[in-house]
Amino acid sequence: MSKDNVFQFFSKAAKNDALKDKLQAVTSPEDLVNLGKQEGLEFSSEHVDEAIGELKEQPNFFRSLAVAVLEVFSPSRDDYPEVGVQPFSGDPNPHP
């Protein structure tokens, strides 16, 4: 178990849409550790803290973090029409 496995896990998640979806469902450090184990990468919540601490020391960390968060948590595609989002014009309560 090591922080290197944490880096490998996040790298793998960045390239795998199914794993990104699973990562979005993570609500606790234990969930993250268990997800890592499912992917064959064992690490502890302390290793995650160490990895994040090391990343924070890197130049442009917060800019890179923001980009990564947007990529992970943004929809993979949007279905908006080219004219943009339109106001709702239907019946808000179709069943009396």
Mind explaining what this structure looks like?
The chain is mostly helical and 96 residues long. The protein has 5 helices and no strands. The protein has helices at residues 3-15, 17-24, 29-38, 45-56, 61-73. Helix 1 (3-15) packs across helix 4.
Q: C-alpha Rg, in Å? A: 18 Å
User: What pattern of helices and strands is seen along the backbone?
Assistant: HHHHH
Q: Which secondary-structure class do the elements indicate?
A: mainly alpha
Please count the helical segments: 5
Estimated share of beta-strand residues: under 5%
Main sheet properties: none
Mean pLDDT: 80
From the spread of the alpha carbons, the general shape counts as elongated
Helix content: 55-70%
Low-confidence region ranges = none
What's the oligomerization state?
Answer: single chain
N- and C-termini, Cα separation:
58 Å
User: How many strand elements?
Assistant: 0
Give a brief outline of the structure.
The chain has 96 residues and is mostly helical. It has five helices and no strands.
Index terms:
96 residues; 58% helix; mainly alpha
Q: Any chance you could write out the topology, listing elements then pairs?
A:
Layout: H1 3-15, H2 17-24, H3 29-38, H4 45-56, H5 61-73
Helix pairs in contact: 1-2, 1-4
